[in-house]
TrEMBL record:
It comes from the Eukaryota. InterPro entries: DAACS, Na-dicarboxylate_symporter, Na-dicarboxylate_symporter_CS, Na:dicarbo_symporter_sf. One of its GO terms (cellular component) is plasma membrane. Belongs to the dicarboxylate/amino acid:cation symporter (DAACS) (TC 2.A.23) family. It is a multi-pass membrane protein. The lineage of its organism: Eukaryota, Metazoa, Cnidaria, Anthozoa, Hexacorallia. The gene is SLC1A2_9. This is Amino acid transporter.
């Protein structure tokens, strides 16, 4: 009996050791966040007692210094990351090898991504998790004086930069000049005066027996928002680089064999960047600890700020639940006229696996088995749609990135114009498409891309990273659900095409799921 007990304990210890080893980075990140919170809470009172503004700012700066270095490391690879990942992801789906089935798949994925981004936008604007409750007192002055029309036009101009090198270091914005009001002044001697709109009496005097009235009429009003060309502002034109990368990837895909050397180059570059990201992520526990400690140490109201972070998580989870339980089933029902929840019931194993390991790439074999065995999806569809979904379809991530960006804006009392909100949604969709091989879609890299594109501060990234690891499990589950339901929808739309076994169909059948060991090793960050 004692021997059996020792054997059982040994197995439990071994299993625990393997689990800790497999999720070492996750464990270190949680420890770093907890230590950072403790340091911030301990130093909050002493820091806020410092009356000298220079000394107080210096103390907070020193606490945040390791985190600043970590953020700089990540910002350093944003440019090659955008270009390499998007070109690699898009170039593999552009050829018309799969014909109509491929087009239906891509249209479905893009549709659900757009719906996910809109859902996240509606929720974060409705719940306002980062709002202080006084929406007018602290609004960003620049955003108030920035016309909505110019915001939209600047976004469209940014999509097509005239200089790619310049787009990597700056972005263009409408420049305003102040034009004073123009007036016309004249005298009237009539005793009865009828003032027209824009006229007012400025003086009245008598010259003998005649009353002379001086009237000033406004010809045009003054304005401090008169467009006068463009000006360069700090920050990378991320949306322009994304548009170029997508178009370049499409062209490479259509060139096929002629572009093979270029595709292989960007694939190798993508793998090299991924290896760098994986290496940098081992510094994330120190960086997160420093950023969280610095942010909390300077807070006036810790409990209030933590309440906002909790409300951010609630907003994110509400979006994920609504998308998975209402939006995706509704899309499935509208297209197939079948009960979506019966289809979802057959995905139980895949969804549990996705939630447990937070990696849809590692869940791919289980997902394929569930849709083929439990839901009778044709293998020619499932073995094409699902691996492609692991590359392109991240509905949960699109929701999360929109919520994160607007939460940061609300947290810092920054009012975003409609044009900048549109940019946030488009970037959330774009980074969702381009983050397939990144061992850290929940990592600060993608958050930095979205925040920098709309000039939002990065000082709150540490607080978000402290909780994003938990949301990653829910995000991955939604991603897997969207992929699986997409296979059912595409099969329904492709019934006639599947009656004939063509050469293209053979290509679909023979395409094996891609193995992504680098993603599995850092599974907690891999919502791909």
């Amino acid at each position: 009996m004692a021997r059996n007990h020792r054997t059982s304990c040994g197995r439990c210890c071994n299993a625990f050791y393997l689990m800790m080893k497999r999720n070492l980075l996750l464990v270190l990140l949680i420890i770093g966040a907890v230590i950072g919170f403790a340091i911030g809470a301990i130093t909050n009172d002493p820091v806020n007692r410092i009356t000298d503004p220079e000394k107080k700012a210096t103390v907070i700066m020193l606490i945040a210094f390791p985190g600043e270095l970590f953020m700089n490391m990540l910002k350093m690879i944003v440019l090659p990351l955008i270009v390499a990942t998007l070109i690699t992801a898009i170039s593999i789906v552009s050829p018309d090898v799969t014909g109509r089935i491929g087009r239906r798949t891509v249209i479905y994925y893009l549709t659900t991504l757009v719906l996910a981004a809109i859902l996240g936008l509606i929720l974060v604007l409705t719940i306002r998790p980062g709002s202080s409750g006084n929406h007018d007192a602290h609004e960003n002055v620049e955003s108030v004086k920035y016309r909505n029309l110019d915001s939209l036009l600047d976004m469209l101009r940014g999509c097509f930069p005239s200089n790619l090198i310049g787009a990597a270091i700056s972005q263009k914005k409408t420049r305003y000049v102040t034009v004073p009001a123009s007036f016309k002044t004249y005298n009237v001697t009539s005793d009865t005066i009828h003032l027209e709109p824009g006229e007012k009496i400025t003086a009245v005097h008598t010259n003998g027996t005649v009353n002379i009235t001086t009237i000033r009429k406004e010809i045009h009003a003054g304005s401090d928002t008169v467009p006068a060309g463009m000006q360069s502002t700090g920050g990378m034109n991320i949306i322009g680089l994304i548009v170029f990368s997508i178009l370049f990837g499409i062209v490479l895909g259509r060139l096929r064999e002629k572009a093979r050397p270029l595709i292989e180059f960007f694939t190798a570059l993508n793998e090299a960047i991924m290896m760098m990201v994986g290496f940098m992520m081992w510094f994330s526990p120190i960086g997160v600890c420093s950023l969280v400690a610095a942010r909390i140490s300077g807070m006036d109201d810790i409990l209030g700020s933590m309440g906002k972070v909790g409300l951010f998580m609630v907003t994110d989870l509400c979006g994920l639940l609504i998308h998975s339980l209402i939006v995706l089933p509704l899309v499935y029902f509208v297209v197939t006229r079948k009960n979506p929840y019966v289809f979802m019931k057959g995905l139980g194993d895949a969804l549990m696996t996705a939630f447990s390991i937070a990696s849809s790439a590692a869940t791919l074999p289980t997902t394929i088995r569930c849709v083929e065995e439990n839901n009778n999806v044709d293998p020619r569809i499932s073995r094409f749609v699902l691996p492609l979904g692991a590359t392109l379809n991240m509905d949960g991530l699109a929701i999360d990135r929109v919520v994160v960006a607007l939460f940061v804006a609300q947290l810092n009392d920054i009012s975003l114009s409609p044009g900048r909100i549109v940019v946030v949604c488009l970037l959330a969709i774009a980074v969702s498409i381009g983050t397939a091989g990144i061992p850290g879609v929940g990592s600060p890299v993608m958050i930095i891309i979205v925040l920098e594109a709309v000039n939002l501060p990065l000082r709150d990234v540490g607080i978000i990273l402290a909780v994003i690891w938990l949301l990653d499990h829910f995000i991955t589950t939604v991603n897997v659900l969207g992929d699986a339901m997409g296979s059912g929808i595409v099969e329904h739309l492709s019934r006639d095409d599947l009656k004939f076994k063509t050469g293209d169909d053979e290509a679909i059948v023979s395409k094996p799921p891609r193995k992504r060991d680098d993603v599995v090793r850092l599974s907690y960050f891999s919502n791909v």
